[in-house]
Amino acid sequence: MVSTRITTETFFDRQAVIDALDAGERRALSRLGAFVRTRAQSSLRRRKRSAPAGSPPSRHGPTNRSLRFILFNYEPQHHQVVIGPVKFSGTDQIPHLTEFGGTKPVQRRRGEASRMARYEPRPFMGPAAEAVAPDMPGVLAREM
């Protein structure tokens, strides 16, 4: 599991990132992040029921605090772009479990014993990156 704390200091419009990359490379990485983010956001359908396991998750409700809130930023240690949904504190939304599946202890009410909830994988970031990948060499070549 990739654990990255997203800070605004590594967004592509910040001076530190502008100084670290040349213009073409910065444009190419930023465009790559934007393409994957857009593809992932468009794969999420709004519906009342849960999505079947193996397909992209459903969006529930009109709020923007959902899996559609996807950011991308520059990761200087590995010289790459990191793209993914934001986990908000205080919510039950867990992007890693949505993408890969797994279990998590949950407690319904105060004083009630917790139980393990099983999450079926509903990948959307990996398929979005795979869908965009065939077009990327041409885009990256034009930008660099």
Describe this structure in words.
This protein is α+β, with helices and mostly antiparallel strands. The protein has one domain (8-143). Helix content is 34%, strand content 18%. It contains 5 helices and 6 strands. The protein has helices spanning 15-20, 23-43, 95-100, 125-132, 136-143; strands at residues 45-46, 58-59, 70-75, 80-85, 102-106, 115-119. The protein has a two-stranded parallel ribbon with strand order 1-2. The protein has a two-stranded antiparallel ribbon with strand order 3-4. Strands 5-6 form a two-stranded antiparallel ribbon. Helix 2 (23-43) packs antiparallel against helix 5 (136-143). The longest helix is centred in the N-terminal third of the chain and has 21 residues, at 23-43.
List the helices and strands and how they pair.
Blueprint: H1 15-20, H2 23-43, E1 45-46, E2 58-59, E3 70-75, E4 80-85, H3 95-100, E5 102-106, E6 115-119, H4 125-132, H5 136-143
Parallel strand pairs: 1-2
Antiparallel strand pairs: 3-4, 5-6
Integer count of domains = 1
Instruction: Look at the helices and sheets and give the structural class.
Output: alpha+beta
Question: Which strand order does the major sheet show?
Answer: 1-2
End-to-end separation? 30 Å
Q: Round the mean pLDDT to the nearest integer and report it.
A: 78
Sequence stretches where pLDDT stays below 50 over 5 or more residues:
none
* 3D shape: elongated
Instruction: Give helix and strand order, one letter per element, not per position.
Output: HHEEEEHEEHH
Radius of gyration: 17 Å
Largest sheet at a glance? 2 strands, parallel
Subunit arrangement of the protein: single chain
> So how many helices?
5
Number of distinct beta strands: 6
Helix content: 25-40%
Beta-strand percentage?
Answer: 15-25%
